[in-house]
TrEMBL record:
Residues 191-306 form the DUF1722 domain. This is DUF1722 domain-containing protein. InterPro entries: 2-thiour_desulf (IPR007553), DUF1722 (IPR013560). Signal peptide: none annotated.
């Protein structure tokens, strides 16, 4: 069982069970509620923060040259207030590891926000993003930023949680690194996770770690950047399959032909989308426990975030 650093997560206040929605309601999302136990949350309601109050009349996004925020009932254009608030709030944050925002909102939505052609919402233009969310995405491009709607997709959710907990670990571990050995140790734990995301970056980071003697501070800074860049792109099933085969290779001397054939057939089903990743990683983990393969058991890839979050997800 790995131990985890608590990520610092910025969360839309309505997902943090605060009664700040336009109608005074909260949003009860099982994963968001569970994450409050495992993260240190910083809740924000951009609309309340710019003084719109609760309850409030709806605001909408419409497209001029740039997206604008408007309250049709009062005729108020509140774009500038929202942009100024976003800038000052985001600049005042401590180091954070990710953002979980409310979908479809004209302020917080990462996806599904209704964008109109005109300020009175007479003509629909497209589905897009909220104004606050757009600033978050611009300013924190290397951090995981999602909304609870997109996190219903198991692969997006797995990627979000993996990045959130890996970046929190990176931040905490590398702030204390004072020897090349410690940097190597961190890199060792993430070998397979990085391999799943980017073989190119894994090799680049391996070279960086190997040559970090004499310029440790600079190397740690560059390592952090490469780590976050590597994790940004969601791995394909083919990339996961490659990692699973590598890990399985460590175990092959211990197991018999029938066990091998069974694993290979599950792997084929995984590649076709008929099995999820947990089925395969759980098998590898069981063998690793049985044969005391500590190198595999230390790998973040086999347990990238707390198991209890997986359980919340499976029951969602
Ligand atoms: S979606 Fe954002 S702006 Fe709307 S109530 Fe929730 S926190 Fe406030």
């Amino acid at each position: 069982m790995r131990s985890f650093v608590k990520p610092v997560l910025v969360i839309s206040a309505c997902l943090d069970l605060q009664q700040v929605r336009y109608n005074g309601q909260v949003v009860k999302d099982e994963l968001a509620i569970k994450l409050r136990e495992y993260c240190q949350t910083i809740a924000v309601c951009p609309e309340v923060s710019i003084g719109l109050g609760v309850p409030r009349d709806r605001v909408i996004v419409y497209m001029d040259k740039e997206p604008r925020l408007f309250q049709p009932s009062t005729g108020r254009d509140i774009t500038q207030e929202m942009l100024s608030f976003s800038e000052s709030f985001l600049s005042s944050l401590p180091e954070v590891d990710g953002f979980l925002l409310k979908s479809k909102s004209p302020s917080c939505g990462i996806s599904g926000t209704l964008v109109y052609k005109d300020p009175y919402a007479k003509e629909f233009y497209k589905r897009g993003k909220g104004l606050f969310a757009l600033r978050v995405l611009e300013k924190f491009e290397l951090l995981p930023v999602e909304d609870e709607g997109r996190l219903k997709n198991p692969e997006i959710r797995d990627h979000f949680l993996t990045r959130l907990f890996a970046i929190a670990h990176l931040r905490s571990a590398l702030s204390r690194v004072d020897s090349v050995t410690q940097l190597m140790e961190f890199h060792r734990q993430y070998k397979y996770l990085l391999m799943a995301h980017s073989q190119v970056k894994l090799k680049e980071m391996g070279r960086l770690v190997a040559n970090s003697k004499g310029n440790l501070r600079e190397s740690v800074k560059m390592y952090s950047l490469l780590f976050m860049q590597a994790l940004k792109r969601r791995p394909s099933r083919k990339q996961h399959a490659n990692v699973l085969l590598h890990m399985f290779g460590h175990l092959s001397r211990h197991i018999n032909q029938k066990e091998k054939s069974h694993f290979v057939s599950l792997m084929e089903k995984f590649k076709q989308g008929k099995r999820d990743l947990y089925t395969l990683t759980d098998i590898i983990k069981s063998f690793a426990y049985r044969f005391e393969e500590s190198y595999l058991l230390e790998q973040a890839y086999l347990e990238p975030y707390p198991e209890e979050l997986k359980d919340a997800i499976i029951n969602n």
